[in-house]
Write a structure and sequence with these properties.
six-stranded antiparallel sheet, 22 strands, mainly beta, single chain
Length: 297
């Protein structure tokens, strides 16, 4: 089973006078997520550092650093994550970085976020019309850069056929709990995508009821998994595979397993329905594999 996420991001730059009043506020403007950034999602943290620079060279998916680096900071003054409560649905993470007075002095034309030695996204600074411009930071002024990255869940079902113990089953996969902004659903953490392994409540579960709408979860009785793992990320694949296991004592329902739900660490919650149900008894162990893929819009 595979479900695809779409990622995008936005910057906001504020220049503050010594009394902390804003002299310049760009409002939010769009960015370009780099290929290196898409790869980093599969392997490590990607929102720990912010950079500003002086070059107005057009951003490219191949960028690995700013074209004219001026200053870098790892000072984060606020962080928030969550999910949009109504359509269009998306999960988000917003981080605000601070450049102390005297550290980013000059004319800024580009901005980026990433990790130590890497670039997740890059953008040129723009004016109110969306045209590239420069932002002047004086020696006694502080610079604040906010970056919000969003992930958009798939809004349509993926239907496919699987064979288990010789029985063909129609599988209907869809997003789940898209308004949940917890760190085990759509609240981005700025870290590598993993299958959630935080206790029973956030582990993958099988169900005796049908799958729900994208804003909810499957119904009926549930049975938790006891073992789950994340496969190593393969560079440039932009996907990560996971496995969840149910031992003989778990997930045994009289009429069979009709659905499963699994959670990732901030990259979404997902559900799959089975028709006909998967018939599992106390003599059976069950293992399910799935993967999540991601890309730009």
């Amino acid at each position: 089973m595979s479900l695809n996420l779409k990622l995008t991001g936005f910057y906001r730059i504020v220049v503050r006078r010594p009394d902390q009043s804003p002299r310049t506020d760009t409002g939010w403007f769009a960015n370009l997520v780099t290929d290196a950034g898409l790869n980093r999602i599969g392997s490590g943290t990607w929102m720990t550092h912010c950079q500003v620079g002086t070059s107005n060279a057009t951003p490219s998916v191949n960028d690995t650093a700013l074209a004219g680096p001026l200053a870098t900071t790892s000072t984060i003054i606020s962080t928030a994550y969550g999910a949009q409560g109504s359509a269009p649905y998306y999960g988000y993470r917003t981080v605000t970085y601070n450049f102390a007075a005297g550290t980013a002095t000059g004319n800024i034309a580009e901005v980026g976020v990433g990790w130590d030695g890497g670039l997740f996204s890059r953008a040129l600074t723009v004016d109110g019309n969306g045209d590239p411009t420069t932002i002047t930071v004086l020696a006694d002024e502080e610079l604040e850069v906010s970056y919000q990255v969003r992930i958009y869940p798939p809004l349509t079902d993926t239907v496919y056929t699987a064979t288990l113990a010789g029985v063909s089953t129609t599988c209907t996969a869809r997003a789940a709990a898209v308004t949940s902004g917890t760190m085990y659903a759509w609240g981005l953490q700025g870290a590598a995508i993993e299958i959630s392994s935080d206790g029973i409540s956030n582990s993958p579960h099988v169900f005796s009821g049908a799958i729900g709408a994208i804003t909810s979860s499957p119904g009926g009785t549930s049975g938790n998994s006891t073992g789950r793992s994340s496969a190593a990320y393969v560079n440039n694949s932009r996907e990560r595979a996971f496995t969840a296991n149910w031992p003989m004592a778990n997930g045994n329902f009289t009429l069979g397993i009709t659905a499963v739900q699994f959670h990732t660490t901030g990259f979404g919650s997902y559900q799959i329905g089975f028709d006909p149900p998967i018939m599992k008894t106390s003599l059976d162990a069950l293992s399910m594999g799935f993967k999540v893929t991601w890309s730009r819009p």
